[in-house]
Specification:
Strand order of the largest sheet: 3-2-1-4-5-10-11
Number of strands: 11
Order of helices and strands: EHEHEHEHEHEHEHEHEHEEHH
Radius of gyration: 22 Å
Shape: elongated
Helix content: 40-55%
Distance between the termini: 59 Å
Structural class: alpha/beta
Number of helices: 11
Largest sheet: 7 strands, mixed
């Protein structure tokens, strides 16, 4: 068999581990050949390829990013995109495509399979952990670890100057990183997009924390917004810090982690998960299970329909968020 591999969307720790596992198992156990497409769906549309063999994936397990590159190209928004994809599959005599990506990348794979019969198998990646049908996506654990380390570090500087520290983490639509890193880092307030916050309550928590002679740490997802509908321009952390200073008279500073959460070497868990996903993706291709995505359920890797995996956003459950409220203020 001849199999194409692509990594789409934003970069994410663990992508190289998937590529390595797919190629190693496909070559060593099945004798397959692999073609890598550069920069996600752009590479498939434009025929920008690179050969993938065992030598090409040697040593990439601990590397962050992706050796294939990534982009957010949508072939359905590109003139002749689907036709050009079919032409490239025929040109390279490919029997299947392994698409490694988040909701955008996998939604394209699902549609290509459902509407045009393109044989695709998906592998879920995103630091946001917001893909339905899988308990975990690789990249999430690394991002949470980076954010937790940052929170640990700002505790000491906050206490030294008796000031408020607001740490902004990624999460435009979901608050998984904020919730997990906030709990792990001992944050006094955690704000997520799923639950609009009351600024008066936030300020009350800040005052309560100072009364206990501790400087408060607030962790806020970039997509969190106030309940009163106040307009937020720019960073939510900067907006929140300014509002807290005005209302409480306490000095507030911000730390916006940004893309540092997506960079660097993947954690041990993400290497493990990404590797298992890659191995099971090869099995799905072998079995002709096109239109499916590998997913983690508990500790088992299973196959789920791509359409189900991309149908909805996996958001933070209110009950899960409520658990963290014990530590607020």
């Amino acid at each position: 068999m001849r199999v194409g591999v692509l990594t789409g969307g934003g970069d994410c720790p663990g992508l190289n581990a998937v590529i390595r596992a797919v190629v190693r198992k496909g070559v060593q156990e099945n004798g397959w050949s692999f073609t890598g497409f550069r920069d996600g769906w752009r590479g498939v549309v434009e025929g920008d390829t690179v050969p993938l063999d065992v030598a090409a994936v040697r040593g990439i397990l601990p590397r962050g990013g992706t050796v294939l590159g990534a982009s957010r190209t949508d072939p359905f928004a590109t003139e002749g995109g689907v036709r050009r994809i079919r032409e490239q599959l025929a040109k390279h005599r490919l029997d299947a495509l392994v698409a490694i990506g988040g909701r955008g990348t996998l939604a394209v794979a699902a549609r290509l399979h459902a509407e045009h019969g393109v044989p695709c198998v998906g592998v879920p990646k995103t630091i946001d952990n917001d893909l339905s049908a899988t308990d975990w996506t690789f990249g999430f654990d690394t991002a949470v670890g980076i954010a937790t380390d940052a929170i640990d570090r700002v505790h000491t500087t906050a206490d030294s100057h008796s000031r408020v520290l607001v740490v902004e983490v990624m999460g435009r639509h979901t608050g998984w990183i904020a919730l997990h890193a906030g709990l792990a880092g001992g944050a006094n307030v955690i704000l997520v997009p799923e639950q609009r916050f009351d600024l008066d309550q936030v300020c009350a928590w800040v005052d309560s924390r100072f009364q206990a002679t501790y400087a408060p740490i607030l962790v806020v997802a970039e997509g969190a917004r106030p309940r009163d509908g106040a307009r937020v321009e720019g960073s939510i952390a900067a907006w929140l810090a300014a509002a807290i200073e005005r209302r409480t008279g306490k000095e507030a500073r911000t730390t916006v982690l940004g893309h540092v959460q997506r960079g660097g070497s993947p954690s041990a868990f993400d290497r493990w998960l990404a590797t298992r996903f890659g191995l099971h993706a090869v099995d799905a291709v072998r079995d002709g299970a096109h239109g499916t995505m590998v997913a983690l359920r508990g500790t088992e890797v299973v196959r789920v329909p791509l359409a189900a995996a991309t149908a909805r956003l996996k958001t933070v459950d209110p009950a899960r968020y409520a658990e963290a409220g014990v530590f607020f203020g």
